[in-house]
Amino acid sequence: MMHRMSRFTVTGTILVAALGLSLSACDDKPKAAAVSGEGEGALNIVAWEGYAEDSWIKPFEKETGCIVNRKYAGSSDEMVALMRSGGGAEYDLVSASGDASLRLILGGDVQEIDVSQIPDFVNFIPELQAPPHNTLNGKHYGLSYEWGPNVLMYNADKITTAPTSWAAIYDPAYKGQVTVPDNPIQIADAALYLSKKDPSLGITDPYELTPAQLDAAVALLKEQAPLIKKYWALASDEIELFKNGDAIIGASWPYQTNTLKAGGANVADTIPVEGATGWADSWMLSAKSKHVNCAYKFMAYVSTPDVQAAQAIYFGETPANLKACEAMDKADAGSCAKYHLDDATTYIKQIRFWKTPQETCSDGQANCTSYTTWQQKWQEIKG
Amino acid sequence: MIDSLHTSNDKAAGQVALGFRRLSAGLWRRPALGAGLLLAPPLGWFILIYLAALLALFLSAFWSVNSFTGDIVHEWTFKNFATILSSDIYQRIAIRTVLMAAAVTITDIILAFPFAYFMVRLAGPRLRIVLFTLVLVPLWSSYLARVYAWRLILAHDGALNWALRGIGFEGVEIGYTNWAMWIVFSYIWLPFMIMPIYAAIERIPFSLFEASQDLGAKAWRTFGKVILPLSMPGIVAGSIFTFSLTLGDYITPVLVGGPGSDFIGNVVYANVGIANNIPFAAAYATIPLIVMALYLAFARRTGAFDVM
Question: Which residue of A40, A108, B14, B59 sits 20 to 30 Å from the alpha carbon of B296, by its own alpha carbon?
């Protein structure tokens, strides 16, 4: 995810109390797995803000003696840059999203992970055990962590019949009341919609677009531009747009829906029939890590149901560990169903996870378009 | 033992004092060397920190990025400048930024001049202090807080529309538009225009006003021939602030701008942060540098630097 900082700041304040309670109330604290070898006493991680909160990091430090030094990154690109800093040995772990993970693998910045050392791995959603954004040629370079969809959110007071298609955000009826993220990866949302609306374009993967397919998506987004009230940069922007009546429909994260609902606004969200894009984060281990044992202990620890649940509720997303459901409901009743962990295997099929657009398509042909191109096109779209 | 220590200490101190005296005598004979030594630290700082950063910016504008690995390729290329010159959107954004900076500057001159004139010529000493405080107090609060405040005022269900509807008018949709940016920028940079104009008007001797009147000039003529030319350096000095501050801003467009509100700064930010294309960002960042260099050259000719 690229503009993600904001998602963390607000959620935390509301939920941290509940979490702290739930974690401290649990007598049987989650145990880090017994990894062969002693911890090195330290662990340097690069993470999204909100991905390494004291409520679950402190117990880990106490238990393993691995002191966690946290560096928060604001974008996927910053994560890639940090993992390469100091010759690649500065940081051990990174919570990379799908649009950074491939770059790290292909750049040789991360090493293969032995998943047999992660006891909870077998409880992971099958689709997240070896997803293409962190597994290459059958080798695991990342351990799936948390995920979520980009949803269609609307003001249920103003739009009484629930929209079922992404066509709604391209509908001139909502002129001046639409909002979408200010992010080049939004092109994939348009491509996903076009793949169903106009099959003749031959779009099979919204992240692998030929120049002609990219042009079609860009043309659609340029038609959409006059309908846009604002391209939102921060989650709080979109919340304010909906609260003040500036926007009534738009692309969103579940977090905004939850926050607006908690504030008494009558909003709803849906995954339209075309499906949705989404994010899936993975923990990845630096190729030159100096604290491998601590890193494995950490990965095993954050895969446990309790930590996965705490993370999911703190942030507003879905864990990879199916067993986290009970812990989620214990911390915040109904949260397991709210984030669809109870029907994860069907829910996940509706989501096309973010990955970095590259010139080389997955079939090896070099006729796809790169992220740099996307970024320039995005600038053209929003003017 | 202690005595001998004392004497050796005294001797050392004496030698140091002698050394200083010789040094200062030497420097006195060579004033250029003395000045050089005095200026070396600030000059070194200036060259290392300030000019080196500019040079690095300018050099990296001629590099490129490997689109696959994201590494910077240190080979000379004009590709970045070619992209800027051949693309409509980057030119449009540059022109939008410069026009907005100009519009904000003109608005602030129109707002600030009567205000500053009132403060100097008409307000009593106590009222003047009150006005000064009113102008300066907003600068003590956070820039972000003030921009967010405007966002709430201009929103669809914001304070402005609430007031308009309350007195029976239609609400206006100016939130998240270039109009909103114009209003916010003009408000935020206004103190930077009022202060130099105030200083300039205050410098005009009162006798010149009387002389103009004694020679038969009407009020508008006194204004056109005496007050305006003499306060021009202040106006230009203020315009340097408002123009450069608007030109370099990228937060207000993000917060109160709508679609089609990006500034040069936003493109630079997106290319450094999201696209990881620092060379392109550097190339694009040279545009405001060139615009500002031209503007400062123009300002110098009007003597604006005398009152700053």
Answer: B59
